[in-house]
Amino acid sequence: MSKSAEELYEALADAVVDMDEDLVADLAKEAVAAGVDALAAIDQGLARGMERAGKLFEEEEYFVPELLMCSDAVNTGIDILKPHIKMDAAAEKHKVVVGVIEGDTHDIGKNLVKVMLNSANFDVIDAGRDVPPAVFVDTAIQEGASVIMIAALMTTTMDKIGDTIQLIKERGLAGKLRVVIGGAPISPAFAKKVEADAYSVNANAAVRIAREMLSC
Amino acid sequence: MDVLSPKERLLRSLKKEKVDRHPIICPGGMMNAALVEIMQKTGHTLPEAHHVDSLMRELAFDVQANTGFENFGIPFCMTIEAEALGSPIDFGTLACEPKIKQEAYSSVKEVRFLPRGSMEKSSRVAAVVQSLHYLSEKYPDVPAIGSLTGPLSTAASIVDPMTFLKQLRREKEMAHKVLTYVCEQLIDYAQLMVDNGAAVISIADPTATGEILGPKMFQEYAVPYLNMIADAIHAMGVPVIIHICGEMAMVKPQIASLHGDAISVDAFVNLKQMKDEYHSLTTMGNLSTYLLEFSDPEVIYQQAKGLLKNNIDIIAPACGLSTSTKLANIHAFTTAIKEG
Questions:
Q1: CA of A117 vs chain B CAs: smallest distance (Å)
Q2: Peptide bond into B161 cis (omega under 30)
Q3: Residue B249 to residue B210: CA distance in whole angstroms
Q4: Which regions of chain B does DSSP assign to beta strands (E)?
Q5: Which of A88, A109, A143 is the last residue of a domain?
Q6: B211/B53 Cα distance (integer angstroms)
Q7: Is the domain of A79 the same as that of A120?
Q8: Is the minimum CB–CB distance between A30 and chain B shorter than 8 Å?
Q9: B104 close to B86: Cβ distance less than 8 angstroms
Q10: Domain at B6-339: CATH code
Q11: How large is the angle between the packed helices A108-119 and A203-213, nearest 10 degrees?
Q12: Cis peptide upstream of residue B75 (ω within 30 degrees of 0)
């Protein structure tokens, strides 16, 4: 007996949590063959599975390797489902710029945020590591993104985050371009001090914050 | 008054023998104190000093002389090993540390295993080794510490780190092979450092944290390879410091099974509590590098006294120092410890 759409979404989500890329591929193909709404399969299947994986990460059941494998499974599924999204249903994805601040070359945290946002179906612009404040702002403007997520892993580089926020103000973009910051040395108190719009404690929280900011 | 030389003090501390007072060190590598303020004063600057042995040793000397840290710490980055094993490096600037430009391999399955003895062919390994030799001969009372990038961090610097982390689960056999290979090369490099006067080897492995790996993988991948290197260095007759980054509540039991002569930890780890829990542990750390950068001398002085009160065996910064840290702050730190 073939599965209902809901059963397929659930199975996709489970396969993502189980890091089972092959099963995700099979289920995605099954969904396509059954004519299930591809966008719903992504949102209610893959993305929901990633949400659960993110929760396991916060609960310290999953760690970075597990989270990356779940994300690979999501991407495999998206690759199969994407060509079948009905064009009128495919609303513009929300753009978020992520990067590691200038002077800092540790990008594992940034990459995790990128992975989580991608899996949550955001359009992620990766500015890379060692990114100067002006490049963050310019990239966001060029790409039409309204959220910048900045990671710092070293205390060295934290003041550059403040510089980025200042630059946004100087260019009259305060309120239009919002900044989320995170990383080992960053604290909520520091975020407040440099007047960041939000502090993200981990990669999963970053997705929640992006959703709230972009109300999606 | 100091009775012991800095070298005696550090070596005795690592053997858990009695000392006149606590040593204060900054081991180099990830945790180096090549501050912009020092380099501007002396003119021995990075990134040039990452390459030229005469500059490298001068800078290591400047750091020791200007900060009050009681050791020479070499090198000033974590890229020597990965470069020797094939990854191209971006050497950064005066104020910004070098980084891997691009990992040499995209998967553990692609790694080309270089023969033993490959490390000594690297010109930067040569610069490190010659610097250690020069400083240890000229200043025999000051311990020259050779800083080594740990096995997981080195492996994740030659193989794309995101793929590498996944392959720790997906390609276990190959991941173990690559780590064994990396360890053999690191042991060769440590041997060169020891043969040329390194009094202590300090291993920092920021990829090998409980936060990134979780307890199971830390046990499977971090502990055995760190211990393989530590055991080999012990066989050379030299003590080993192991620095573990990040929060470690999750991997505390594993920490006690590491073969380091001292365990160095990040700022938010409660070293006093760890010391109480694991009596055999020689603790090292852990003054916040955030405080060192953003706080003032009085606060730092008080915090340093707190480390003494908690009887932390070897006093050191908790993590990598910001290159813009003010010398006055470092002085407050080293002075507080040396007064006893």
A1: 16
A2: no
A3: 8
A4: 72-74, 89-90, 99-100, 144-149, 200-204, 240-244, 262-265, 283-287, 314-317
A5: A88
A6: 36
A7: no
A8: no
A9: yes
A10: 3.20.20.210
A11: 50
A12: yes
- The beta-carbon neighbor of A64 closest among B95, B96, B212 is B212
Contact A65 B213 (CB under 8 A): yes
For residues A128 and A209, state if they share a domain. yes
Residue B158 has pLDDT above 80, yes or no: yes
Cβ(B49)–Cβ(B93) below 8 Å = no
Instruction: Report yes or no: A56 at the B interface, CB cutoff 8 Å.
Output: no
**Cα(B160)–Cα(B174) distance, rounded to whole angstroms?**
14
List average pLDDT for each run of 10 residues in chain A, which is 216 residues long: 88 97 97 92 92 91 93 93 75 88 78 87 91 95 95 78 95 94 87 94 90 87
Residue A74 CA to residue A20 CA, distance in Å, equals 10
C-alpha dihedral, A154 to A155 to A156 to A159, nearest 10°: 120
Angle (deg, nearest 10), helices B161-170 and B172-195: 120
Domain match, A108 and A56 both: no
ipTM over 0.95: no
- Of all residues in chain B, the one with the smallest CA distance to A153 is B320
For helices B53-67 and B327-339, the axis angle rounded to 10 degrees is 60
Q: Give yes or no for a contact between B98 and B91, defined as CB atoms under 8 angstroms apart.
A: yes
Report yes or no: A63 at the B interface, CB cutoff 8 Å.
yes
Q: B99-106: list long-range contacts, CB under 8 Å, 24+ apart.
A: B99/A105, B99/A129, B99/A130, B100/A105, B100/B157, B103/B156, B103/B157, B103/B158, B103/B159, B103/B160, B103/B161, B104/B158, B104/B159, B105/B158, B105/B159, B105/B160, B106/B159, B106/B160, B106/B163
Are A71 and A107 in the same domain? no
Angstrom distance (rounded) from CA B222 to CA A48: 32
What is the span of the domain harbouring residue A102?
95-213
Say yes or no for a CB contact (<8 Å) between B212 and A108. Answer: yes
Q: Distance from CA of residue B273 to its chain's centroid?
A: 23
- Tens digits of residue pLDDT in B299-328: 999 999 999 999 999 999 999 898 889 999
| Interface with B, mutate which of A21, A61, A64 (most B CBs under 10 A) | A64
String of DSSP letters for A46-78: IHHHHHHHHHHHHTTSS-HHHHHHHHHHHHHHH
Q: Collapse the DSSP code of A45 into the 3-class scheme (helix H, G, I; strand E, B; otherwise coil) and give the result.
A: helix
CA distances from B262 to A193, B8, B211, B248, B296 (A): 37, 15, 21, 16, 29
H or E stretch covering A179: strand A178-182
Both tokens of A88, joined, read 């009128």
Name the token pair of B302: 């008080």
In whole angstroms, what separates CA B329 from the centre of its chain?
Answer: 21
pTM over the 0.95 mark: no
Listed residue (B332, B162, B134, B315) closest to A108, CA to CA: B162
Give Rg (Cα) of chain B.
Answer: 19
Cβ-based neighbour number of residue B140 at 10 Å:
13
Subunit contact A156:B323, Cβ cutoff 8 A: yes
